Amino acid sequence: MNNSTEQLFGQGVKRTKGEQSRRYNLLAARLIADLVKNLLGPRGMEKMFIDILGEVTVTKDGAMLLRKIDVEHPAAKVMIDASNAVDNEVGDGTTSVVVLAGALVEKAEELLDMGISPTTVVEGYLTGLQICLESLQKIARRFTNYNREVIQGLAITCLRPKMISYTSFEENMAAKLVVDAVYAVTDFANSRVEENNIKIEEKIGNTSDTRLVNGVVIDKTIDNSAMPRTVENARILLLDEELESKRTRTDAEISITSPYQIQSYHDKEILVTNLRVQRIISSGANVVISQKGINAYAQNLLSKAGIISIKRVKENDMLWLTKATNAEVLRDLGSDVILPEYLGYAGRVYEKFVGGDKMVFVEGCKNPKSMTILLRASSKRLLDEYHRSVLNAIAVIRNFIVKPSIVGGGGSAEMLIATTVRKKANSITGREQIVLQKFASALEEIPLTIARNAGMNTIDTLAQLRSKQKQHKSSTSKSKIVRWIGIDAIGRKVAEIYSRRIIEPSIVKEQIIKTAVEVTTLLIRVDDVLMAKPAMYTHTHANGTQHSHAGGDGKHDHHFDRLGKQQRPAHHFY
Fold it and tell me: For 216-367, which CATH class?
C-alpha cells in the first residue's frame, strides 16, 4: 500500500484513511477542548503561555490562548479556527464553542463505537441543530434594544468570568463604565454601535482608579512648560500642518552666495510662522492639537497668548478628538481666517500624572461621539486581560442592540434545549434517536463544565438539573413561562438563573451551537488524510534555539563560528 501511495502521490506523502484517520481527527479536536475546558465560568482557572521570546500571557480568554499556541494537526487547527470565527462574529462564547464541539466529538466517538455509521451521526447532528435553533427562537425573551437594565445585566454576566471582576464592586463598576461608553456611541434608532469610537487607554496603577472620560485621553504632554496646565471652556483647533520648517521628501539644495541670504531665508521662515500663529490666536482657539510638529519658536508665541499646544498626536487620537469635540481637522493655515466651525469644544483640557507618566485629558465635551475608558491595573499582563474583557463586553452589548433578545446563562439555555431535543428524539424511530440523545447529552456538557470548574460534584449536579427541569415542566405544563435552571457558580448550587440576572444574547448562543455542530460534522466526514512531507521543519535544540530548515526532522548538527559562540538567536529563521 505504501509503494502504491508513493507511485501515485510521490515520495514523502503519508496517507491515513478510513476509521483510523477519523479517530485521529476526533482525538485531536477533543484534546483542544480539554485544553480550554477549565477556563469556562466565573470559577474557571487562568492559563499562562510563554512564547519563544519569553513574553508571558495570562488569560481566561479561550480564543486568545488558542491563537497563541502553535499546533500542527489540521483537526486541531479547525477547532482553533472555529473559536476565532465566533470571536470575530459575536465577540464572546469562544471557550463555550470549543467545549461544546469537544463534547459533540466525544459523543460521536461513542456512537461510532456502537457501530452507527458516520453518515447517520452527521444527519442526526444536523437534525439536532435544527431543533436547537427552533427551540432558541421559542424560549428567547425579547426587549427594546435600549433597555438599560438588560444591557447592564449582559455586561455584568460577560465580565463576571473575567479577571477584571475580583469583587462585586469592581464588577459593577466596570460594567457601568462599558455601558455608559456604549450608550454614548450608539444610534439606537438604526441599531448601530460605533464600537471603534470607544478608546481604551491603559496605565499601570490601582484597579479602582479605572474610569470613563467623556472625551479623549492622549498619552502626550503639553509642549512647553510656560503654557497653562489647565484650560477651562476649551476651544480646540485640530491641525494637520507643521508649525515648523518643512523637510522635503527628496534631497534638496538651496544655493546661497552671501550671508545676507541666510538671514533673509531665516527671516522668511519666522514671518511665515508668525502669520500662522497669529491666525490661530485670532481664531479664538486656546488649545491647539497637531498631528505634526510645532517648533520652539511657535510654542513660545502660543504660550505668550495663553494657548496650550500638543504636537505629534497619533492619527487615531485625532479621529477620536474630532468625534468627541466636534472639531474639524484643519489642513491648511494659508487662508486668512480660521472659521468658527473648525473649532471644537471641551469643558476642560488639562495635564495630569497617571501611573508616573503625564497624560492630557480632553473631557467635558458636549454630546461626545467618542469616549475613553482609562484602564488601571497592577501589571501589563493584567491590563492586557482587562482590555480583552472590555472588548468582549462591548461586543456582547452590540449583539443585543442589533438583535434585542436574550436567554438565561449558566448553562440554563443548554438544559432547556437538551430537554427539547430529548423529547423530539423519543418521537423518532431508528438509530437517529440514539444520535439525538447523545446530542442532548453533549449540550449538557456546558453547565456540567461550569459546575466542575466551581468545584461541584458533576453527578449530583446533573441529577439536580434534570430533576428541577422535569419538576418545572410537570408543574407548568399548561403555562408558557420558562424557568431557567442552571449553575450559579458563585454560590456553587443549581438555581433559577434568570432572576439572578445571569443572561446572554441569544445571537451568541445561536452562533456557538451552529459553529460547534458545523465543526464536528466536518471532522466526522473526513475519512482520508494525505500529508505531504514539509520542506522546512521547525525544531528546537537543547539550548532553546528554535528555527526552521530542510532536514530539521532528522538528527543533525549546526556549524558554530570559530569563537565557539551559541547558535543563532531563537527568532532567527533561515
Answer: alpha beta
Q: Do domains 2-142+407-529 and 216-367 have the same CATH topology?
A: no
The CATH fold of domain 2-142+407-529: GROEL; domain 1 (1.10.560)
Helices in 286-364 by DSSP H: which ranges? Answer: 296-304, 315-325
Which has the closest alpha carbon to 154: 494, 440, 395, 432?
395
| 348 CA to centre of own chain | 32
Residue 318 cell numbers, joined: 485625532
Q: Domain spans of the chain?
A: 2-142+407-529, 216-367
Q: What is the pLDDT along the chain (574 residues), one digit of tens a residue?
A: 455 555 566 666 666 666 777 888 899 999 999 999 999 989 889 999 888 788 888 888 898 899 888 888 888 999 999 999 999 999 899 999 999 999 999 999 999 999 999 999 999 999 999 999 999 999 999 999 999 999 999 999 998 887 665 555 567 888 999 999 999 999 999 999 999 999 999 999 888 888 999 999 999 999 999 999 999 999 999 999 888 776 655 666 767 777 776 777 667 778 888 888 999 999 999 999 999 999 899 999 999 999 999 999 999 999 999 999 999 999 888 766 788 889 999 999 999 999 889 999 999 998 899 999 999 988 888 888 889 999 999 999 999 999 999 999 999 999 999 999 999 998 888 899 999 999 999 999 999 999 999 999 999 999 999 888 776 554 444 445 678 999 999 889 999 999 888 999 999 999 999 999 999 999 998 887 766 766 666 666 555 566 677 666 666 665 433 333 333 333 333 3
pTM (2 d.p.): 0.84
Measured CA to CA in angstroms, residue 242 lies from 82, 245, 273 at distances of: 48, 7, 9
Angle 32-417-76 from CA coordinates, rounded to 5°:
15
